[in-house]
Every structure is written in C-alpha cells, then in structure tokens.
Amino acid sequence: MTTSTYGEGTLPSGVRSRMVRGVNGLDVHLLEAGHAGSGRPLALLLHGFPDLAYGWRHLLPVLADAGYHVVAPDQRGYGRTTGWVNSYDAPLAPFSLLNMTRDALALVSALGYQRTAMLVGHDFGSPVAAYCALARPDVFPSVVLMSAPFPGPPAFPFGTADREDAPAQTTAGPQQLAAALATLDRPRKHYQQYLSTRDANDDLWHPPQGLHAFLRAFFHVKSADWPGNRPRPLKAPTAEEFARMPTYYVMDLGETMPQAVAPFSPSAAEVLACTWLTEAELAVYTEEYGRTGFQGALQGYRVHSDPDLNAELPLFSGRTLDVPSLFIGGEKDWGPYAAPGALDLMAKAATRLGGTELIGGAGHWIQQEKPAELGTLLIDFGKEAGRAGQTGR
Prior knowledge:
Blueprint: E1 16-23, E2 26-33, E3 42-46, H1 59-65, E4 69-73, H2 97-110, E5 118-122, H3 125-135, E6 143-146, H4 173-182, E7 188-190, H5 191-195, H6 200-205, H7 211-221, H8 239-242, E8 250-252, H9 257-261, H10 268-273, H11 279-292, H12 295-304, E9 325-330, H13 342-349, E10 353-359, H14 366-369, H15 371-384
Parallel strand pairs: 3-4, 3-5, 5-6, 6-9, 9-10
Antiparallel strand pairs: 1-2, 2-4, 7-8
Helix pairs in contact: 2-3, 7-11
GO molecular function, one term: hydrolase activity
Protein name: Alpha/beta hydrolase
InterPro entries: AB_hydrolase_1, AB_hydrolase_fold, Epox_hydrolase-like
C-alpha cells in the first residue's frame, strides 16, 4: 500500500512509502528507493531514537543510484509501524534486542530476499544491527554501525570454577552510576535513566515550548550546528567523567529533557540556515510523534536497563562479530564516547573491522547532515567487502 501523503511532499524523487503486513507480529511502515525492477541487492537501514525511517530520506536516493534496493523501516515502537502496545505498562519483552533482531530478519524474508548486501544501524539501531550480524551472519553478511559502538555481547565469568567466592554481579552498574551522579556538587542524572521513567513520555510529548520547538532544539543541540559539541573520550565510567558531557546526555537532576535543551534552541537565522532539516521536514517528525507520543520509542531504554530482559544476550558470550564491519561517527557527535571504552572494545569484538570513520561537519544525525559523504563510505565499504552481486532473492 502506497501512502502518497506521507512526508507532505518532502520525500525525494524515487522514494516511496508503503506498508508490509505480518512481519514478526507487526505491520511495518517503510520508505524505499531502487524498488523498480528486480535483482537489486538489498540495503537495510535501521534508525535510532528519536528518529524514524524518514531520517534516511537523504541517503535513500544515494544508495539507490548505486544500484541497491534500499529499505528503511519505522522500527518497532516508532512511526506508522503497528502491532505493538503503546503503553508504559505494556510488556517490554517484545522490545528486547533479540526480538527486534527477529523483526529485521522477518522483514528481509517478507521482502523476498535471502540476505542483505548492506545492513546499517544508527544509534539504537546499531545494537540491533550488531545482533543481526552476530546471530545470523548468513542473512546479514556485513554490517555498518553508526554513532553507537558495539562492545561485544555480555560475557559469562571465565575461569572461576576454583574460586570460593561468587563472581561479582555487574547488573548494579546503572544504579551505582545514578547514585553517584545524584551526589555531585551539581546533582545530575544520566539521560537513559530519565528516559526510562514513567513521566518521560508525557514530558517529551507535551513540552511547555511545544513539540515542534522541542524537537527543533533536540535535533539542533545534537548536531554539528551547535558549537558546544566538542566530543572526546571519557577517561573512566565515573560520575565525574560523565558530568563532562553536555546536558542532553547528563542532565541536571531535576530537569526534563525539554528543559535541558531549551536554552540551546537555535535562532530564527540558524533554523533558516539548516538545510539538512527544514521546517517542512521537521513538521513530519512533529506530526508523527504528535500522533503516537514517544512511549514506544522509549521502551528500548527501559529494556536496556532491565537485567531480566537482557538475560538471553549471554547466549553469545565469547562470540565475536566475524563479518566485515565498519564504524562511522560524526566528528561532532558524543555518541561514540557515550559508553567509555566501547569504541576500543569494538576493535576486539569485531574481528573484521574495516576501520573507524569520523565524518567532518557531522554531529549525531550523520545520515541527514552529511548524506553524500556517508553514501560514499557505505558504497566503498560494500565494494571492499566483496558483497556486490552476492545477494539473491
């Protein structure tokens, strides 16, 4: 089913919106390009928070022109994809990493492909993409991770059989960090802690400055357009080091996210100069989130902090990511450093890592801020990985 009104005329030529029914219990809304004809290799693009399939709109034609059939779905909990329960009190298991991995696997199958020629995950889409390649390298024979490095799966303690004491449990980490941040001279809280709370959805959905203004400030402050973004590696996972990050990552204790980003709202001149996210394009985000709210998108943060919902992940303990891989970040993006040490760990977790690329002039929203540069990296990686012509229906 084609939705001709989606995007209100802002979709690039050759990009269409449609629904695919019955995908791991979902009806999936997606954007695609390069869909005319047959025999094209499949490129699957997975977005993060608070993005949508729409966030890939600038990149879709670039990859289609390179010969790919490019598909970007609204992930579970987002946009026009349905089949999930929109409630804070809904079961969280459907939003687990492995079930969202199944979503991607089921979508590839529904589209009539045996495997992807390109798999790209950005932000929260990055761990989904990583587990796709970790669990099913036959279907996902290469992977590109953006903004969020993959440190490897959680591991069982090794060589502890002769110890008299039980190995230390690591599940208390987020709680310990939260307690330490709250006791700083300027009390703080981690944004993931905040986004997991019951009030976060209403805070984001009905902010005092209005949804459109909040989204504009949020996209602006995490982009290269905001001069305050000077990312650097954190020395250790301590409260003092985390507190060096901007307040959209490590917030003042009593603030909501709309309050945290409001002081950095762009001027009218800066909005006009933002060609990568025009007011008409931002209106698409405002309409979509105005309709759904943010709870579905926020469920992933709650899963991330719940040990019971991650209990399946140590099934991959000791397993490495053995397909050709690439990490891409924005030069002005804090994302690669948000988890101290993760970027270094990825070099060990991914045995065929083709490199780490930081795109100049890009913040967190790489696919929107610098789609041409990103497209060049992706296309070159695809050729180097030897995947051209290897994906069949």
